C-alpha cells in the first residue's frame, strides 16, 4: 500500500560519491576543531577569521545538508555575541533564520504532499470502512511525528508545525467520522483522543519545559532561564512600541532568544526524554458516578475538498457503571455567529461601544437549543458536567442558558469548565487561600511636573475595555473596585488569612511584575481589562501596538496605575513600566505559587481563537505563567454587582473550602437576586 511512506521526511541527496563526501566532512571537522581550540585559548578574532573561511567551505560543499552550515553559523554567532559585535551577530542570526525557514518550508511541503496523496487515496474507496486501517496507521505516524517535532522546538515553531502539518490530517479524520455519522466506534476513540491531544498541547508543553528545567536546580540551566526571561521582557516591551520607537538591537535580541529557546529544548530533551509524551486516552479521564465530561470540538469540513464550513460536535464521556463514549453532531459555526450577531445590548448603555457578546432571555433559549438540546438524553441522571469549550463556545456563558421550562443550566447541574477533559481530577486539590493580594481602586492618570498630563476621568463606568476607545480618551476611575478590595481584605483578615491590597498609584505594573517567583496563593485584580480583535484593515491609521499587533497577547491586557499617558500617546517615555500590562508580559512571569487568579474586570476571558488551542489572551497568559485556576469574565461587568458577586464567592469558599461549590452557589444566588438580568452575573467563568 503506497501510503505507508507518506509521513516520512525524505532527504534529497546530491550525486556525490560517499568517498568524496567523507573526505570533505573530515576536512570540515578538522577546521571546526581548530576554531574551537583557538576560541578556548582566547584567540577569538582568529577563531572568527577561520570561522568565516569554514562557513564559505560549508556553503560551497554541503549544499545537500544544512547540518554543517548550522554548526559553523552557531559558533560564529556565539563569538560575535561574546564580543558584543551586534552587527555581525545579527547577520549570522539572519543566515540561521533563513536556513531554518527553508527547512520548515520543505517540511511543510512534504506534509502537504502527503495529505494530498492520502486524501486522494481515501476518495478512491467506495467502501468507507475499508479506509479505516489506513487512517489508523496514518494517525499513529502523526502522533510519532508530532512528539518528535515537539521535543526539538519551542512554542512558536510548535504552533506552526501543529497548524500547518498536523491539523489538516486531524480535520480529515473528523470529517470522515462526521460523514459516516460516527458509526465506527473504534474510530470515534481515535478522533476523541486526537481532540484531547491537540487541546492545550502547546500551552502545557511550553510551560512544562521551563518548569521541568527549573526542578533540576542546575546553575548553568538556571542562568540560561534567567537570561531567557530577561530577553523575553526586553523583546515584549519593544514589540509593544511603534516600530519607529523600537531599539535597533531588537532583531539581534530576538535572534538570541530563539537561540536560547533551542538550547533549553535540548537540555529538556536530554533530561526528560523518557517522560515526554503527547498521547492522550479518553478512558483514563477521572470521572465519578453521575458525572459527564463534554469535550466540545470544532473542525474544518473536508468533503472531496475543503468546504467553507466549520462544524461543532460534542464528545461525551462517562465512567460509571462502564466507560462510554458518544460523539454528537451539534451545529455549524455560522449558526452560532448568527445568534451572537443578533444579541441584544439593552441595559448596557454605559459600555460606549463595546463589542462583547452579552445575552438576553431570547438568546439564552436559542443558544440552549443549538448547544445543549441535542445532548439532553445523555444528561439524564447527571449531576455534574465538566465541559471544555472550543472555538466560539469560549464566548458563551453556558450557566445562563435555559431550557423551555425556563430553568438555567446552572440550576440543573454543577458546571465545571476545564481547558481539557484530561485535566479533570477525581479528588480536586483545593486552592490554597493562606496569602492573598487584592488590587483595585487604580488611579489611571499620569501627572508629573514638566511632562504632558493625562487627566483622570471621573465618569462612572463598567470595568471595560472600549473597543473603539480613542487614544485621547482616559480610563474612568472605578470606585467600586476600591470598596471591593477593602472589604475582601477585611474578610480575609477576619478568617485569619494573610492578605494585603494595593490601590491608587501603588497599584502599578511594577508591583505585579515584582510578584514573579514569589506570588501569593490568590491574586485578585479589579480594574479595566481590554481585548482588541485582529483587524484586517491595513489602511486604518493605528498609533499603538495594543490595538494593531498581529500577536493576540499584545492586544489583550490589564490597565494599571498611570496607564492613561501610554494609552493616549502609544507609550510612556518617562517610565520603564507604562501601566498597560499585556498578556504577553504576564505570560513571562513566574506565578507558579498562585493557585487562583481572579480578574474582576471586563472581558478578561476574551482573546483570539487559534486552532484547538483555545483563547489567546489573558486566560492563556496566566496559565503560561503557572497559575492553576482562573476566575474571569466574558463581557463587560457592572461595578456594583461585580463586587457583590466577588464578596459572596469568597465568603462561601472560605467557609466550606470547596471552590467549585462556592462558585456555583454564587451564580445561583445572583440569579435569584437578578432573575431577569444574567448580564449582571453570568459573565464570570471559573476555569481549571
TrEMBL record:
Record's keyword annotation contains Signal: yes
Entry keyword annotation includes Metal-binding: no
Signal peptide start and end residues: 1-18
InterPro entries: CHAT_dom (IPR024983)
Keyword entries, A-Z: Signal
Coiled-coil intervals: none
Domain CHAT: 364-687
Name the record gives this protein: CHAT domain-containing protein
Gene source species: Winogradskyella ouciana
Amino acid at each position: 500500500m503506497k501510503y505507508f511512506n507518506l509521513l516520512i521526511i525524505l532527504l534529497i541527496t546530491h550525486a556525490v560519491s560517499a568517498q568524496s563526501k567523507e573526505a570533505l566532512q573530515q576536512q570540515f571537522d578538522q577546521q571546526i576543531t581548530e576554531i574551537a581550540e583557538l576560541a578556548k585559548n582566547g584567540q577569538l578574532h582568529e577563531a572568527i577569521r577561520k570561522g568565516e573561511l569554514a562557513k564559505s567551505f560549508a556553503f560551497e560543499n554541503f549544499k545537500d545538508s544544512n547540518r554543517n552550515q548550522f554548526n559553523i553559523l552557531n559558533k560564529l554567532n556565539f563569538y560575535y555575541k561574546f564580543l558584543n559585535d551586534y552587527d555581525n551577530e545579527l547577520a549570522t542570526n539572519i543566515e540561521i533564520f533563513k536556513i531554518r525557514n527553508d527547512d520548515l518550508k520543505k517540511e511543510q511541503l512534504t506534509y502537504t504532499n502527503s495529505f494530498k496523496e492520502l486524501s486522494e487515496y481515501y476518495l478512491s474507496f467506495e467502501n468507507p470502512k475499508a479506509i479505516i486501517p489506513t487512517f489508523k496507521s496514518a494517525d499513529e505516524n502523526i502522533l510519532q511525528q508530532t512528539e518528535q517535532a515537539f521535543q526539538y522546538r519551542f512554542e512558536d515553531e510548535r504552533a506552526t508545525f501543529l497548524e500547518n502539518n498536523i491539523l489538516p490530517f486531524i480535520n480529515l479524520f473528523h470529517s470522515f467520522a462526521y460523514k459516516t455519522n460516527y458509526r465506527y466506534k473504534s474510530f470515534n476513540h481515535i478522533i476523541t483522543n486526537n481532540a484531547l491531544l491537540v487541546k492545550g498541547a502547546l500551552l502545557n508543553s511550553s510551560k512544562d519545559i521551563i518548569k521541568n528545567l527549573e526542578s533540576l536546580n542546575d546553575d548553568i540551566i538556571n542562568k540560561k532561564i534567567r537570561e531567557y526571561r530577561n530577553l523575553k521582557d526586553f523583546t515584549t516591551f519593544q514589540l509593544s512600541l511603534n516600530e519607529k520607537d523600537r531599539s535597533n538591537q531588537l532583531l539581534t535580541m530576538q535572534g538570541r532568544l530563539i537561540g536560547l529557546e533551542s538550547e533549553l529544548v535540548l537540555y529538556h530533551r536530554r533530561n526528560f526524554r523518557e517522560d515526554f509524551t503527547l498521547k492522550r486516552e479518553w478512558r483514563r479521564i477521572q470521572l465519578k458516578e453521575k458525572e459527564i465530561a463534554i469535550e466540545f470540538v470544532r473542525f474544518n469540513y473536508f468533503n472531496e475538498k475543503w468546504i467553507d464550513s466549520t462544524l461543532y460536535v460534542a464528545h461525551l464521556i462517562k465512567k460509571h457503571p462502564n466507560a462510554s463514549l458518544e460523539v454528537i453532531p451539534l451545529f455549524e459555526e455560522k449558526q452560532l455567529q448568527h445568534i451572537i450577531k443578533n444579541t441584544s445590548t439593552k441595559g448596557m448603555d454605559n459600555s460606549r461601544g463595546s463589542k462583547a457578546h452579552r445575552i438576553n432571555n431570547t438568546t439564552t433559549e436559542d443558544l440552549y437549543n443549538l448547544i445543549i438540546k441535542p445532548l439532553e438524553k445523555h444528561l439524564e441522571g447527571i449531576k455534574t458536567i465538566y465541559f471544555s469549550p472550543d472555538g466560539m463556545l469560549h464566548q458563551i456563558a453556558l450557566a445562563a442558558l435555559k431550557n423551555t421550562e425556563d430553568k438555567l443550566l446552572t440550576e440543573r447541574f454543577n458546571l465545571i469548565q476545564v481547558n481539557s477533559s484530561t485535566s479533570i481530577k477525581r479528588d480536586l486539590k483545593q486552592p490554597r487561600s493562606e496569602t492573598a493580594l487584592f488590587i483595585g481602586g487604580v488611579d489611571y492618570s499620569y501627572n508629573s511636573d514638566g511632562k504632558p498630563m493625562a487627566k483622570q476621568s471621573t465618569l462612572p463606568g463598567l470595568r471595560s475595555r472600549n473597543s473603539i476607545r480613542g487614544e485621547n480618551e482616559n480610563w474612568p476611575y472605578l470606585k467600586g473596585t476600591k470598596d471591593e478590595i477593602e472589604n475582601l481584605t477585611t474578610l480575609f483578615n477576619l478568617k485569619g488569612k494573610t492578605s494585603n491590597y494595593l490601590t491608587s498609584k501603588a497599584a502599578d505594573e511594577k508591583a505585579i511584575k515584582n510578584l514573579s517567583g514569589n506570588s501569593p496563593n490568590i491574586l485578585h485584580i479589579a480594574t479595566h481589562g481590554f481585548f482588541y480583535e485582529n483587524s484586517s484593515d491595513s489602511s486604518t491609521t493605528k498609533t499603538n501596538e495594543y490595538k494593531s499587533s498581529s500577536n493576540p497577547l499584545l492586544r489583550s491586557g490589564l490597565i494599571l496605575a498611570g496607564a492613561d499617558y501610554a494609552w493616549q500617546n502609544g507609550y510612556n517615555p518617562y517610565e520603564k513600566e507604562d501601566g498597560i500590562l499585556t498578556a504577553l508580559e504576564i505570560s513571562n512571569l513566574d506565578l507558579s505559587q498562585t493557585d487562583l487568579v481572579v480578574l474582576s474586570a471586563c472581558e478578561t476571558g476574551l482573546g483570539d481563537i487559534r486552532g484547538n488551542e483555545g483563547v489567546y489572551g489573558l486566560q492563556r497568559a496566566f496559565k503560561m505563567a503557572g497559575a492553576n485556576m482562573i476566575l474571569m469574565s466574558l463581557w463587560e461587568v457592572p461595578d456594583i454587582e461585580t463586587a457583590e458577586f466577588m464578596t459572596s464567592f469568597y465568603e462561601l469558599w472560605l467557609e466550606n473550602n470547596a471552590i467549585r461549590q462556592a462558585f456555583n452557589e454564587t451564580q445561583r444566588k445572583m440569579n435569584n437576586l437578578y432573575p431577569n438580568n444574567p448580564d449582571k452575573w453570568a459573565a464570570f467563568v471559573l476555569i481549571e
